[in-house]
Amino acid sequence: MALLTLDYKSEVLSMSMTLKLLYPEKALYATEVEDIPVLYLLHGMSGDVDTWMRRTSIERYVKDTNLALVFLDTHDGWYSNTHSGYRYFDAFTQEVPELLANLFPKLSRKRSKTFVAGLSMGGYGALKLALLTNRFSYAASLSGALDFQDLEPLVDDFRGLTYWRGVFGDQIFAKNQPGDLVTWLDQADRKTKLFAWCGEQDFLFPANQRAQVLLEEAGFELTFTSSPGKHEWYYWDQQIQEVLKWLPIDYQEEERLS
């Protein structure tokens, strides 16, 4: 795999941004390789564009696939258009796909070959980006922060109320505020296939159980699993392998790691 770093000026965010692309090396040289499927990987709170590469063996897991990976950085902006004026949602659903298509024309622009996954805050982001657009056919959440009810008692430990209001506004913990999963469902496309996992000892496990019920009642095709585990990279490194098995990607069977 080739690891490419792209530093660019985001017109949407009005600031310099960095994304990283893990690109199949075969596609660098073989003219017949095209329409490469793409997985956007989203980090959690306090993470950045490098976190997935540093904390998991993701490069090894995809080395014998035809998949390209895109790593984004939301600066703890929850992949949202924040109340403080940073339009991360617009940047990642409009600007970044066009940027990648222009620079890397072999990357697929088809919804059927475009996927998104994330952990914790990134799990929230993965579902938000997928359900509020028609860009992603598969979306996966690992230990996703899918319900803010469980976060209110932890505000002081997670940056304080000023930070949360800067992202979501004054009604952050009000029921059915615009950042809630439940408020997206009326406009969400049921064609998107969903995957969610959460550890049973994770403080976000109750939120994931509530989200499971909500999504299934709303008619989404959801693969929901749980197992013993905490809010830790040890488990996310395991579960991203399950996400890759779930995605419709191709492997070079003769080279695939056992």
Automatic annotation (TrEMBL):
InterPro entries: AB_hydrolase_fold, Esterase-like, Mycobacterial_A85_antigen. Pfam families: Esterase. SUPFAM superfamilies: alpha/beta-Hydrolases. GO terms for molecular function: acyltransferase activity, transferring groups other than amino-acyl groups. Gene3D superfamilies: alpha/beta hydrolase (3.40.50.1820). This is Esterase family protein. It comes from Streptococcus danieliae.
